[in-house]
Amino acid sequence: MEVLRNLLEGYPNLWGGGVAHSVLILSLVIAFGIILGKVKLWGVSLGATWILFVGILFGHLNMNLDPHLLHFMKEFGLILFVYSIGLQVGPGFSQLSKKAV
Question: Is the Cβ–Cβ distance between 52 and 33 less than 8 Å?
Answer without folding.
Answer: yes
